[in-house]
Amino acid sequence: MADHGFPVTRSLVKVLATGIIKGRTETTTVNLEKGPSDVWWSRFKAHHPELTSRTADSLDRARVHGATPEAIEAFFKLYEALYVKHNLEDKPHLIYNCDETGFGDKPRSREKVLCKTGRKHVYQQQQMTREHITVHCCVNVARDSIQPFTIYPSYVQRNAYRLDGPPNTLYGIQEKGYMDSELFLKWLRHFIR
Length: 193
What we know:
Layout: E1 8-9, H1 10-22, H2 38-47, E2 51-54, E3 57-59, H3 61-66, H4 69-85, E4 96-104, E5 113-116, E6 123-125, E7 132-140, E8 145-153, E9 170-174, H5 181-192
Parallel strand pairs: 3-6, 8-9
Antiparallel strand pairs: 1-5, 2-5, 4-7, 7-8
């Protein structure tokens, strides 16, 4: 499950174990209302040394399905060809990367999840929420950055968000607080300036 972005939590393992126990005909000492005890959990983990508990990092659904080895390799081949074609080897101030991140109203669960021992990162797909703010950032290889672009949902009062924001920050409003083609064009003009 962890390999597919849906790692199993301790509480889910206990629910699944309770379901298995309820399906058996023999008697049990497990309290079926509360589920397996902490002692059971300790024994389960001791019996499965290939599993460990970790805190999962968020990973949105598009990255889960789009970050295949083939897609990554194709990207870097294209990138390398453009890098050489435009003679950018000694011009780090001309190589920029931009990305956006979202902030929602639903706090991320800090409950530990199970994964194979030795795994460096464990990702958990993000749950979409009703409230959303997007921040679009841009930095070049020389470590210079331009002001962020913050996008609020349309219900936020116009100009109310600018009161305590960083100076020269670009702001936008979109119905649900996400980047769209119109706002990206606004940001691109800002970037060119």
